[in-house]
Design a protein that fits this description.
The complex is a heterodimer of chains A (309) and B (318). With 309 residues, chain A is mostly helical. Chain A contains 14 helices and no strands. The N and C termini of chain A lie close together (6 Å). Chain B is an all-alpha fold and 318 residues long. The chains are: A mainly alpha (309), B mainly alpha (318).
Chain lengths: 309, 318
């Protein structure tokens, strides 16, 4: 078990190295000559030569990559092209908190809806309630945010005039309601399905039959024996979605004008601000790798029956 | 020996045909599956036959007839440049169909071949493949796709233009077909890994089955076993994954085009239509909702069909 985690721990930095290698090369050479990209209209041969030297682009590629890694480790993610001379790290850390707040609220919402629904569906497996729950949660999630966003907007902003159209005011502000609900709608079906599946696994176990046989009230059978055990696999789901919090939100952030990292990514795509885009990719991949690792570790801690080899 | 082998072969086709028949019958009995498949086929057929089906030219503007509501002339109305919405939806279907079919075909072929190798030969081939796919999975897929499309699109377009000049042909860059290449290239680059893992897993469990051992004892070659025994048995899972994959590819194309790094205007894509009409949501929600609903319906159809197919293939797993 500790050997498994050790191997995973050693594997993670290697994955990150490859990730950084890809972001480095795509960011620097993907769009064409980086000097031309930076100078754009103001291109002049002497200016280009000086900038090439300043950026260290006249050095061997391997050396450039090592320099890049050294900087990243120290927290220096380069400078933005669009926001002149602002460090990318600063831009990102200004906004990552907003995305995390939005992500946590929407995840809490989809867990609060999905876990009870999944459990109820499993307890009524094969009957109409099961079918109704599975299909009604599937609908809003399979329907893309491109539909849920305008529909929510038309209903709650334009017609009922209950909610503001966009903006951001922190976690206890009305502005968070629409983006959080949109994201939660997209995530609920996954939670419900997972919860239903893991509850079904537990329902068939011997200890559940024993609990019923010894005359335990159904309330306690469900609450103590089924729910608790069915929640174990859900820890993985929660950990994994923590890793993709930032990634999932860029469309929603863009539409509602939430100043998070997703909106920054959108902005960097449209303004061709590659250093920012690459830094975001690196950070998102980092959180992804860490979340995957954490999911395995947490899983084995929560459920001592799991033994990795 | 040599006489026993053909006999075994002769007895096999009817059996697999019967099981295929059973699967088809189970599928047809589900209205959800039939309706989903019909929706998918109609949209793809319209898309691939766009130049025949579409009532107008997708570039034709009519500035005297902007923002028209649906009418007999324009079933879905017109947009801010007076272009027929139905026509643009149909040409958007062409983009979605071409890109998703190419991406899924390439991803599936790569995945099946590489996963087949890994699953059958095991050892270092397997280890290498699993590690490479581990790394691909370590990237958040959508973001990797965005990175590739955003950074490599200018490059690929420039290469294609240079290629056109040196070879003296035309039409790849001007028609926007090169955008299709960028988008489906980025998708299949990521898509193969999931398929490879699936095929590998299937083969690993199938390899231990008695009928494979029997074929080995009969002296069948590796290629024969893979083609005759392993792939046909893994086919159901592959089909489910293809159905889901097509839906995912459609959604990915829409997102990339919405971001402005996929298919470029004036070539219609549902993603660019959504982006163009986003600002008019308050006044003309129809212009945004039409393409968005088509995307949603198609995506839902692929998922429901994939689910139904899965249920029909494994009736006990429900």
């Amino acid at each position: 078990m500790s050997g498994y985690i050790l191997r995973r721990l050693l594997w993670a930095p290697f994955v990150l190295l490859v990730v950084s290698f890809v972001t480095f090369f795509l960011g620097l050479y993907g769009p064409g000559d980086p000097v031309e990209v930076r100078l754009g209209q103001r291109y002049e041969p002497e200016l280009a030569e000086r900038l090439r030297h300043e950026l260290g682009l006249d050095r061997p590629v391997g050396q450039q990559y090592l320099e890049y890694v050294r900087k990243v480790v120290r927290g220096d993610l380069g400078e933005s092209i669009k926001f002149r001379n602002r460090p990318v790290a600063e831009l990102i850390f200004d906004r990552i908190g907003v995305s995390v707040q939005l992500g946590l609220v929407s995840m809490a919402l989809s867990l609060a809806i999905g876990i009870p629904l999944g459990l109820i569906a499993a307890m009524h497996q094969g009957r109409w309630l099961d079918t109704a729950i599975v299909s009604t949660t599937l609908l809003p999630s399979a329907i893309s945010v491109f539909v849920t966003i305008p529909v929510l907007f038309l209903v709650f902003v334009r017609t009922l005039k209950l909610l503001p159209a966009g903006g951001w005011g922190g976690i206890f502000d009305v502005h968070i309601i629409l983006p959080a609900v949109t994201l939660a709608l997209a995530g609920t079906a996954g939670v419900t399905r997972m919860m239903r599946a893991s509850s079904l696994e537990v329902v068939g176990q011997d200890y559940v039959r024993t609990a019923r046989a010894k005359g335990l009230p159904e309330r306690l059978v469900v609450g103590r024996h089924i729910l608790r055990n069915a929640l174990i696999p859900m820890t993985t789901v929660v950990m994994l979605s923590l890793g993709s919090l930032v990634e999932g939100a860029f469309i929603v952030e863009g539409f509602y004008g939430v100043p998070g990292i997703g909106a920054l990514a959108l902005d960097s795509i449209s303004s061709r601000d590659y250093p920012v885009l690459m830094a975001i990719s690196l950070i998102v991949a980092l959180s992804f790798v860490v979340a995957n690792l954490a999911a395995d570790v947490v899983y084995s801690v929560v459920d001592p029956r799991i033994r990795y080899r | 020996m040599s006489s026993a082998l053909p006999a075994v072969e002769e007895s096999k086709p009817p059996e697999s045909a019967r099981s295929r028949h059973t699967i088809l019958r189970r599928l047809v009995r589900r209205p959800v599956a039939v309706v989903s498949l019909a929706v998918i086929l109609v949209i793809y057929a319209c898309g691939l036959l766009a130049s025949v089906v579409a009532p107008y030219d997708y570039r034709a503007q009519n500035l005297e007839q902007t923002f028209q509501s649906p009418s007999l002339q324009h079933w879905l109305g017109t947009d801010r440049l007076g272009r027929d919405m139905l026509t643009r939806i149909i040409y958007g279907a062409r983009t979605a169909a071409v890109v998703s079919i190419l991406a899924v075909t390439l991803g599936t072929v790569l995945g099946v071949v590489l996963g087949g190798f890994a699953g059958y030969f095991g050892r270092w081939v397997d280890t290498l493949l699993m590690r490479v796919s581990d790394i691909l999975f370590a990237f958040p897929g959508m973001l990797l796709m965005i990175m590739i499309a955003a950074t490599l699109r200018p490059r690929v377009t420039a290469w294609a233009a240079a290629l056109q000049d040196s070879l003296g042909f035309k039409g790849l860059v001007e028609t926007g077909y090169i955008d299709y290449v960028v988008v489906f290239g980025a998708m299949s680059f990521i898509g193969w890994a999931g398929m490879a893992r699936l095929v590998r897993g299937q083969l690993l469990s199938l390899r231990e089955q008695p009928f494979v051992e029997a074929a080995l004892v009969n002296g069948a070659s590796a290629w024969w076993i893979i083609r005759r025994h392993l792939l046909p048995n893994a086919m159901p899972q592959i089909l489910v994954s293809v159905s889901m994959g097509l839906g995912g590819a459609v959604a990915a194309e829409v997102v990339l085009s919405w971001l402005g790094i996929g298919v470029q205007p004036p070539t219609p894509s549902w993603g660019t239509m959504i982006a163009e009409n986003q600002g008019m949501l308050r006044f003309y929600p129809r212009l945004l909702l039409t393409p968005a609903l088509v995307v949603a319906v198609l995506y839902l159809a692929f998922n429901l069909f994939g689910d139904a197919l899965n249920d029909a293939l494994n009736p006990r797993s429900r």
